[in-house]
Every structure is written in structure tokens, then in C-alpha cells.
Amino acid sequence: MTRRELRFASLAITALSLLFSTKSNVGAQEKYSLKPTPKTVAWGYYDAKAAPVLRVKSGDTVEIQTLITSTPKRLEDAGVPSLSSAPSAISAVSVSSALNLFPSFWPDRALPSPHAEKPEWCKALPRPEYKSLQRVLPDDPWFEVYKVAPGVFAIYEPHQAEEVISYLIVGHKQAVLFDTGMGISNIRKVISQLTSRPVVVLNSHTHNDHVGGNWQFNFVYGMDTDFTRKNAKGSREDAQAEIALPKGFNPKTYATKPWKISRFIHDGFKINLGGRTLEVLSTPGHTPDAISLLDRENGLLFTGDTYYPAPIWLFRPETDLDAYVNSAKRIAALAPGLKLVLGAHNLPVAEPSVLPRLVAAIQAVRSGQGSVKPAGEGKALHSFGGFDFLLTAPKKEKN
Ligand SMILES: [Zn+2]
Predict the structure, then answer these.
(1) Does position 79 have pLDDT exceeding 50, yes or no?
(2) Which residue from 126, 211, 262, 376 has the highest number of Cβ atoms inside 10 Å of its Cβ?
(3) Domain region containing 361
């Protein structure tokens, strides 16, 4: 199960409650069924500036099987009628995005009245962070690139289920590429359009969705762990486990190519980019080689997979939960000095106050609080305080 499937599972549930709650508002009712097709797999995050792609009236049925799409064209391709100027509209995309990304804005019930111009929860969107996002290189067919802070670019891969985000951090002398993505499209080409300075690669950790383009670069830092060394040999199994690859891409041949570690580094290592210094913080837990990257002067913390705004994966054999909690505490302690937290999936920006709440949530979950749902073979989704963690399910005893 992917992060995306989890998100849509919760979306589908809420869509149903929306449906039941609005059943009494009779009008000309429509039924929309959104099914995944190769053309509609692409899905970005909430775009405050984009027009809703689907407007539904109270009483309409929206059956969401896996996804909602990002453009009217793609929606039509998925067999959904084109936009009508229906009154009292709810934007399905806004609904999905609000559910996925801004759960606190979704009231328990409080459905918008059919005559309201804009539902109450909608008025709170977008979050202020989005105003600072500036799209660059809009023509790239695979990557979406956003300038999220001065000299910082988020390189987002929305067309694949992991929705991974790599970051290019540029100084006067050189630049760091923090992760290289899936390795499906050519990240080096994108980087060359963003900076002419020498680029060194550093990985938030070496899971395959963060190292796919490592082989394209001459200089790659590596944490001094066996896990890193092993992954640098490339991986086929992990890569093969990925789903929802783009059309025309042959998943059978997909693998992470090996790369050469140019220099091993440890906790506390600093990289001077010229006018900007990045500090490596060892934050093991998700993996033994997980790091966060701190730009102390500019108040930026790149958290990799230690924090991102979607179910956080903590179920794999290389995960160490005790270490994860300690790492979360370590980065949470930095929150007062931060302006922005930049995670490695789904959304590039979060408020620093999310970090202390993350610590509270994982501790609550570990002490048995919050809700638990089965989430695929051997896994369980634990939720508390707006955070979701995908953990190993307790093993059932077999007779
Ligand atoms: Zn990972």
C-alpha cells in the first residue's frame, strides 16, 4: 500500500459520509465515478490557484476509487462529464485536498448548506505557506519544480504514487541536491536548468525513491553506515515494488542504478555552499542512515522521511522506533529557530510547530492511544492528533 492509497482510503470514507449527509437535498442528482486510468494517475497537491476540476451539487454521488485528477482534460479522460456551472458547488479536488492535507479544517459534520457560496472550511484555505510557492520550469513533463525559499527548489514527482520531493539548495559557490528522486526521469537535466554551480548529492536516506538519480552525479556524500553501502549497489526488488509508474514506462526493467559514494560523512558534518552552510543531523529511525539537513541561518530544516505530511512509514525491517522517537525529539527541539520544515513527500512546506506535535503523536501512538486500522499485509495505520504512522501490525498467533 502506498501513501497515496492510504490517503484515498480516508478520502473515500469521508466522501461517503458527505453523500449520506446530503441525501435529503434533492435536485437533479448526478453520479460521478472516478476511476484510475494511466492518464489520470497523475495527481498533485492542493493548488490554491487552480480552478476546481469537478463541481458537485448536494446529493450528487462521487465515487472515488483511487484518485481525483488534476485537470479538467484528465477528468474527462477518466469518463467524468465536463464542468457545468452548477450552483452551490463543492470542489471535489478541494475536498480531497482538504482531507488529505488539512484534516483540521474538515469539521465532523457541518456540511455546507446548499446555498452557501463557499463552505466554511474552504475559507481557511490555502494555508499561508502556499503563497510563497512559486512554480518554475513549468514545461517539464515529469517534475514539478517550486521555488520554496531563496535559493531553494523543491523538485516534486507528482506522477508517481510516492510523490517524492527532492530539494536543490543553492549557495554562491556550489549547490547541494538533497535526494535525487525516483530515477524515472532525468533529474540532472532539471538541475542544470536551475543552477550552473557545481552540484553535490546528499541523501536524506537511501531508500530507492530518494536515490534514483544518484548515479547521474559525480559527487555523492554517504552516511557511514552498512545500510548506505548496501543500497549504493542499487536495488531491483525495492524498485520493483513501486506501483503506478507512468504510461510507457516498463516497470519490469525498473531498478535503482548503483552509485559511487565519494565521501562518507557523520552527524555534525557541515557543507559550506558559499554564503550558506548546511549541517547534517543524523536522525536515524526510518532508516539507520536517515538524516535531516539544517540551514540554521535561514531557519530551514529538511526532514527527509522523518517528517512529511502523510502517513509516515515506520514498518520496514530497517526501521528502529526508539531511534525514531529520539530523532523526532532532536528535530523538534530546533523548532523555535526554524521558519520552514521541508519534508520529502507530498508537500514541500510545513510549519515548524508540526515537529513538537509529531513527537507527542508518535509517543501517544506507542503508548496505545489513537486509532488503529489494518493497512495491508502485516501493517497497521495508527492515527493520533492529525498524524498517521504506518507501523508493523502485531503478529497474529497461528495454531
Ligand atoms: Zn524512506
Answers:
(1) no
(2) 211
(3) 120-366
Q: For 84-100, what is the mean pLDDT? A: 31
Please indicate, yes or no, whether residues 264 and 346 belong to a single structural domain of this protein. Answer: yes
The widest CA-to-CA distance across the chain, in whole angstroms, is: 66
- On whether the CB atoms of residues 196 and 322 are closer than 8 A, the answer is no
Please tell me the predicted confidence (pLDDT) of residue 323.
Answer: 98
User: Of how many residues is the chain composed?
Assistant: 399
Question: What contacts 335, CB < 8 A, 6 or more positions away?
Answer: 352, 353, 355, 356
Whether residues 187 and 299 share a domain: the answer is yes
pLDDT per position as a tens digit, 220-259: 999 999 999 999 999 877 666 654 455 566 767 778 899 9
Ligand 1 centroid vs 252 CA: distance in angstroms? Answer: 21
150/222 same-domain check: yes
Full-prediction pTM beyond 0.70? no
305 Cα–ligand 1 center, Å: 5
How many whole angstroms from 232 Cα to the centroid of ligand 1? 15
Q: How many CB atoms lie within 10 A of CB 165?
A: 30
The answer to whether residues 93 and 147 belong to one domain is no
| In a shared domain, residues 271 and 330 | yes
300 in any annotated domain: yes
pLDDT averaged over the chain?
Answer: 74
Tell me whether residue 316 is in a domain: yes
